[in-house]
Amino acid sequence: MDVNDLESAINNAKTEAAPAAPEITTDVKAEVPQMTEEEEKGFHKGALNTLIAERGELAKMVGNVEGIMQAHISRLKELGVDLK
Question: Could you tell me the residue range of the domain that residue 66 belongs to?
Answer without folding.
Answer: 47-77
